[in-house]
Fold this sequence. Notes:
Blueprint: H1 2-16, H2 18-22, E1 29-31, E2 34-38, E3 49-56, E4 68-75, E5 81-87, E6 94-97, E7 108-115, H3 120-123, E8 130-136, E9 145-148, E10 150-153, E11 163-170, E12 174-182, E13 187-197, E14 203-208, E15 215-225, E16 231-240
Parallel strand pairs: 9-16
Antiparallel strand pairs: 1-2, 2-6, 3-11, 4-7, 4-10, 5-6, 5-8, 8-9, 11-14, 12-13, 12-15, 15-16
Amino acid sequence: MIRLILFAALSTLFIHHPVFAYYPELAYQLRKDRWEGIQPRPVSGDLGIELLSAVVDYTEPQTSFPATNKILFYLTNPAQIDLTVRELSPKKYYLLNRVKEKETWRQGFNPYQWSAETVLKPLNLKINQLGAVARVNRLENHPEERIAPVVLYHSTYPSKITGYRFTFKVGTDADLDYVIYSDNNSALLSKKELGKRTGGEPFVILWDCSEAPAGHYELVVDGHSLRDNSPLHQSVKFYHQPEIKGKF
């Protein structure tokens, strides 16, 4: 029975992932301190709004594949982090998660790096095709998302953070809008209509924070399903630390 189940799973991978058929070593598996590789396309019945990525709006030029990709994220206090890196427009279904770097990450900027040659290079996936999200103390079951925005880079990181790029996906066709608050004083900083969004297709919210001081902020996405008019809601809370100081 176990062999039949394993055969069925591998057959599904061969059908949906032709790269895996030639390179089974690229399958999603434990690699040192992380799980990484091609993961079978998930079947999800969730019709809500899903946060796929929360990164600093920064793109480092990449003409060739570096040896490593790197991450930085800032914490106001030591915390447990659930770190995920994924392909944003899924064609090869790349996923990295379950990072075992540290049980508790420290206050301040935290670095992490992983090999770009093991999986990303054979898949020809560059860093600008990836998204990342660092969820803070996820085991505490907060009703909203609490995240630490991620800097994705391979060699040089920005000295100042002037913008963020949030990527979401909604499980059903929907009409949406969003607002951004300063969580320090509940001041409304930005409000925009997103309009109609197609279920299953990622969409991006950009926030220019070049004038925003360090502090806590909240992004709220609201709307309704076009299928049955049911309400949709997602809240993302994060800390904005504009200056990156130190060597990582």
